[in-house]
Task: structure prediction
Amino acid sequence: MNQKDDKQIIEEILAGRVERYGLLVKKYETLVFTLALRMITNREDAEEVAQDVFVKSFHALNTYKGDAKFSTWLYRITYNTCLDMLSRKRRQPAYYDLDNLQHTDLQEVENALDKMEAEERDEQIKKAITMLPEEEAFLITVYYYDEQSVKELAEITGLSESNVKIKLYRGRKRLFTLLGPLINAEKKSSYERT
Amino acid sequence: MSAHEKELLKRLSEKHIKTLKTESPKTDFMTEVMLKVTHKRVDTSVFVYKSPITTPVWAAIALAFIALVLYVIKGQISIVALEKYLPRNIELSLFDKFSFVESSQLPFVVVSVAVIFTLLTLLEIPMMKKLVNHNR
Result:
């Protein structure tokens, strides 16, 4: 189902075939939920936000002009809804300042990741993503999961393109810097278990 | 930032973030969304036109009106002819007071307009329902 299909489905929904909205929900539910989970870090809240996103987007479908991709439009709603939820919950950011992080040799991190089991590696990376500032977690997730361009990311978040690039770089650096101590801690605990 | 570090970060991201699996919400996620969407739609979004006077009542009003108009135009219904259907203790002279025949003979144009108006009103109900409920 491509972008053209999305537009056709939207036209059908606006013409009264409400049940067709299920196709759009099915197509985007995993990514919207993943984005919410990466930003909010709590499964229940992420589920609530994801539902809210789809209900909001349904009621705003007539405002979708079709000049941008439907996914871009939907992710903008996701991003704003997540920010609303975070401000409602008054979650204090617990991310790690790059300057205060210990120096990590990225080459060592790469070697360590390569040696890990896929499942364990994915767990550690997901854990590290949830330790990023919400904006960086969101940008990295959309950029790599849905291959949105920097321009589209700027449209979604309302940031300038250069700002998006900086935040993407910082996010990547913070993520893999955080992974160093996380991998070491995991190694230590598995050594203690055995 | 060194070019080497930048390259390394890009490579690591491509290799490890891109391959991460997306998370799935609970299995009935779509059903719940669709329930919310359709429920809200029925509750708040749709205005369903319901005429305050139902079609049969409109039809009865129109028939009564047409009968009255015909009575006024023709003026030939004799009260006397109703005598056998009326109770004996009713004075027939009473009906003269209510007769339109002598007091007011409506002009033909007014009566025609009234008849046309009634017919249009009868047509209006299904048309309005179709128009207002269109695409809902």
The interface with chain A takes residues 1, 5-6, 8-14, 16-26, 29-30, 32-34, 36-38, 40-41, 45, 135-136 of chain B (CB under 8 Å).
